[in-house]
Amino acid sequence: MTQEIKLEAEFVTLGQLLKEAGIIETGGKAKWFLRENTVLVNGKPDDRRGRKLYPEDVIEVPDNGQFIVKQQERL
């Protein structure tokens, strides 16, 4: 099952997404998590915690699932 991560800004970083999804406790742990785990962004491995993710990007995290970035609807 794919979980949606809603964007309030133009983009979210990979480190912020990992925190938002509850995979890591703090953004500072992203560096270590990405060093030890293969995370796929749009089907390709990426270990940059500062990688900018935009709407419709798909992120796969081993043992944690798949996530898709969506733009928050504005009223």
UniProtKB/TrEMBL annotation:
This is Uncharacterized protein. Keywords: RNA-binding. It comes from the Bacteria. GO terms for molecular function: RNA binding. It comes from Latilactobacillus sakei subsp. sakei (strain 23K) (Lactobacillus sakei subsp. sakei). CDD domains: S4.
